[in-house]
Specification:
- With 410 residues, this protein is mostly helical.
- Among the domains are: 87 residues, no CATH class; 55 residues, no CATH class.
- The chain contains 21 helices and no strands.
- Helix 1 packs across helix 3, helix 8 packs across helix 9 and helix 14 runs antiparallel to helix 16.
- About 3% of the residues have low confidence.
C-alpha cells in the first residue's frame, strides 16, 4: 500500500467517530458527511500529512461545515452555528468522547442512527450509508429496489432526523431494545455486501469490521438471543473466507469449496453462541439462519450436507421472516433434498418482479436450469446476472461458468 493509500485508510478509520461528533454538533447528517468529505479531500492534498490525523480532520471539517452553512443559510443562522461549533473547538477529545457503555465509535453511531422515529428498513439504509459508507446503488440492491427509490428513502430519513430534532446522543441502555432490530438488520446487510464482495474488491476490511461489531454486540447483550444468532451467522460465513476465491481470482461456490480451508475454531465459536441463544427459548430469524449455515458447516467434519434439515429450517424461516430471497434459497435446498423439478417449481412460485434487481435470484435460476439440462435458459440467466454489477471475483466465476455452458452446447 503506497503512502497516499495508507493516509486515505487512516482517514477512513477515523470516519465513524468524526461523523458522530460532527453530527452531534451540526444536528445534520448531510452536513456532517459533506464536511468530513471536504476535510478528507484537503488532507489527501497535503504534502506533509498531519501527525494527529483525526484531530486535523475534525478541526478542518468544523471549519468546512461552518463555511457550508454560511453559503446556504442566512447570516444570523450562520452566526449561531459558528458560535456553537467554535465553543470548545480547542479540545477535540471532549467532542469525540462518547459515553462508555458501547466501547466502539462505529457501534455507538449505529445505535444513534437507528432511532425508532424512522421506519426499520430506512433506519438500516441510513446507517449503511452514514456508518459503512456503502454506495446508494449497493444499498438499493440489498433491499431489492431501484437506486433512485433508495436515494429518496435515505434523503427523507436525513430530513426527518433534521426536522424532528432527533438527538445524536447515545440512548440510555433501557432504550437499546427498541433500536436493536434496526442495528441487527444493518449489520446483516453490511455483511451481505461484504460477503458478495468475495475478494474484497470494494472494501477489503468491511467483512472483518462487521464480524468484529457483531461479536462485540453479542458480548454487550448476552441475554439477547438474536444478537447471539447474528454473531453466529456472520462468524460461520466468515469461517469460509479462505476458501471462497480460487487462484484465478474467481469466486468458488459453497458446494465446491475445500472444507480443509474452513476455520473450525470460528465454526465452534458460532456453535457456542447458537447454543447460548437456544437456551433463551426465543427463536428468531437470525438463529434460524445461523442454524442453516451451521448445517452447511458440518460438511467440514463429516463430509455431508443434511439437505432435508436445511429445507426444514427454511420452512421455519419462512414463518418468522418470509421474503422472496428466502424462497429462492429454499428452492435451491429443495432441488438438493428432493429433485430438480421440485426446486424449479419452488423457484417459479417466486414473484420475479420482486427480484428483477436481485443477482442471487438469477444465479439460482442459472444453477437449476443447468441441472435440468436447459443450458440456453441458464446462459440467459447468467447474462442477466452479469448486468447487475457483480464484484470482480463473482464476475470471473459467472464468465467461466458461461463459457462452460457454451462449450457444452457446441
Amino acid at each position: 500500500m503506497n503512502e497516499r493509500a495508507l493516509l486515505a485508510r487512516k482517514c477512513m478509520d477515523a470516519r465513524p467517530r468524526l461523523i458522530a461528533a460532527l453530527a452531534a454538533h451540526f444536528s445534520d447528517l448531510d452536513l456532517a458527511e459533506e464536511a468530513f468529505d471536504a476535510a478528507l479531500e484537503a488532507c489527501l492534498r497535503q504534502d506533509d500529512p498531519p501527525d494527529n490525523i483525526a484531530g486535523w480532520l475534525m478541526s478542518v471539517a468544523r471549519r468546512k461545515g461552518i463555511d457550508m452553512i454560511r453559503r446556504r443559510s442566512a447570516e444570523a443562522r450562520a452566526g449561531d452555528a459558528a458560535a456553537l461549533i467554535e465553543e470548545g473547538e480547542a479540545d477535540m477529545g471532549d467532542v469525540i468522547a462518547l459515553p462508555d457503555p458501547i466501547p466502539d465509535e462505529r457501534l455507538r453511531l449505529l445505535f444513534i442512527c437507528c432511532h425508532p422515529a424512522i421506519t426499520l428498513e430506512t433506519r438500516a439504509a441510513l446507517a449503511l450509508k452514514v456508518i459503512c459508507g456503502l454506495p446508494v446503488g449497493t444499498i438499493a440492491r440489498l433491499f431489492l429496489i431501484g437506486e433512485p427509490a433508495m436515494f429518496q428513502r435515505i434523503t427523507r430519513a436525513k430530513a426527518k432526523v433534521r426536522g424532528a430534532g432527533i438527538a445524536f446522543d447515545l440512548p440510555q441502555r433501557r432504550d437499546w431494545p427498541e433500536r436493536l432490530d434496526a442495528v441487527l438488520l444493518t449489520l446483516e446487510l453490511a455483511y451481505t455486501a461484504a460477503y458478495q464482495d468475495a475478494a474484497g474488491e470494494i472494501d477489503s476490511e468491511l467483512s472483518a469490521e462487521i464480524g468484529r461489531l457483531a461479536a462485540m454486540l453479542a458480548d454487550l447483550l448476552p441475554d439477547e438471543p438474536e444478537a447471539l444468532g447474528l454473531a453466529a451467522l456472520i462468524t460461520i460465513a466468515r469461517s469460509r473466507e479462505e476458501a471462497r476465491v480460487g487462484r484465478s481470482g474467481a469466486m468458488i461456490p459453497l458446494s465446491k469449496q475445500d472444507t480443509a480451508l474452513w476455520n473450525r475454531q470460528a465454526i465452534e465459536q458460532a456453535r457456542r453462541w447458537l447454543d447460548e441463544a437456544a437456551a433463551k427459548q426465543q427463536t428468531g430469524p437470525y438463529q434460524i439462519m445461523a442454524a442453516i449455515q451451521l448445517t452447511h458447516a458440518r460438511r467440514a467434519f463429516d463430509g455431508k450436507t443434511d439437505w432435508p434439515a436445511i429445507v426444514t429450517l427454511y420452512d421455519a424461516l419462512m414463518m418468522v421472516r418470509p421474503g422472496p430471497m428466502v424462497q429462492v434459497n429454499r428452492a435451491l435446498a429443495m432441488a438438493e433434498a428432493h429433485s430438480i423439478e421440485a426446486g424449479l417449481a419452488e423457484l417459479e412460485a417466486v414473484d420475479p418482479k420482486r427480484l428483477v434487481n436481485a443477482r442471487p435470484y438469477h444465479v439460482a435460476r442459472a444453477k437449476l436450469q443447468e441441472r435440468a439440462g436447459n443450458h440456453e435458459a441458464a446462459i440467459e440467466a447468467l447474462d442477466t446476472a452479469q448486468t447487475l454489477g457483480p464484484p470482480q471475483a463473482e464476475r470471473l466465476f459467472l464468465t467461466q461458468w458461461r463459457e462452460t455452458l457454451m462449450a457444452a452446447q457446441s
